[in-house]
Amino acid sequence: MKNLAMTLSAVFMLASVNVYAGSDFSSLDADGNGAISQAEAQKNSALAEQFKKLDTNADGELSKEEFAGFEG
């Protein structure tokens, strides 16, 4: 029973992290264009530091797919 509770706790924690990451993208995408610009990324210092690494196509914006690699 204790193992089941620990497993369920881990599953719910991971699910909430994914929901949080999605809402973070939306809140950082201030203009609602579906991408986070370098200026918008400045709201989060960790994201600003990782921006160039995450921007894999070097277009100056982070798509949802690129943002998924954010470790913050």
Automatic annotation (TrEMBL):
The lineage of its organism: Bacteria, Pseudomonadati, Pseudomonadota, Gammaproteobacteria, Alteromonadales. The keyword Signal applies. Gene3D superfamilies: EF-hand. Residues 42-72 form the EF-hand domain. InterPro entries: EF-hand-dom_pair, EF_Hand_1_Ca_BS, EF_hand_dom. Residues 1-21 form the signal peptide. The keyword Signal applies. Keywords: Signal. Pfam families: EF-hand_5. This is EF-hand domain-containing protein.
